Amino acid sequence: MSKTTHYAFLMAAMCVLASCGGGDGDTGQDNIVEPTLMTVTIDEPTGPVDNSTLGNWDNTLLGVGEFGPANQLLNNWRGIMSFDISEIPAGATIVSAELTAFQFQVNGDPYFNLGAMMVDHIAMGPVMQGDAYSDFTISLDVGTLSINGTVGVKTLDITGVVQSDVDAARGMTQLRLRFVVPNNDDASIDNAFIAGPESQDAATIKITYTE
């Protein structure tokens, strides 16, 4: 083997070991897909619905639990949350999706009398409907948002929920908040309020996805 051939052989071997690219300087890292991070804020239609199937909503606060005049038969409210995810491209893979909500106020003792605050995945559509109290359900109990009356931030991983909505091209992620027990029939009000769309602590979903 000549010196020239021997030198060329060594250079080629070193290039392989160093994972050299082609003449354009490609190192093989250009095909790495960086995930996209986005945050969507709670939007319309959002609000509480009660078990009389009448829509009742306030854009500042979402009421969940028992409501009504003291010492009378109480209605039960469940909170409907909507998030616009239409900017996520079709076919995207959701790497992570975390719901963040702010528990603003608690009355009575809902977490003792009614249990934990659960989250259902629903598909109500673009218009608020009282029937969303129990209808339009995709999956019941996709997770627990809160187990106590501590005022402050509550979080829940809903990656599978958002992936389902992207796969079905719904353009929205919609959730229903409820306590395990709708009403404990003691004529004493037990409820909690979650910050709504017009609050400075409005709920969000932080989403990471790849195309």
- Tally of DSSP helical segments: 3
Give the ordered list of helices and strands: HEEEEEHEEEHEEE
Q: What is the domain total for the residues?
A: 2
Strand content: 35-45%
Distance between the termini: 51 Å
State the helical fraction.
10-25%
Q: Structural class of the secondary structure composition?
A: mainly beta
Most strands sheet = 11 strands, antiparallel
Explain what this protein looks like in three dimensions.
It is a single chain. The chain has 2 domains: 1-32, no CATH class; 36-210, Jelly Rolls (Sandwich). Helix content is 13%, strand content 42%. The protein contains 3 helices and 11 strands; from the N terminus they run αβββββαβββαβββ. It has helices at residues 3-17, 110-113, 159-167; strands at 36-41, 43-50, 61-67, 75-84, 93-107, 117-122, 137-146, 152-157, 172-179, 191-195, 204-210. Strands 1, 2, 3, 4, 5, 6, 7, 8, 9, 10 and 11 form an 11-stranded antiparallel β-sheet that branches. It is elongated, with a radius of gyration of 25 Å.
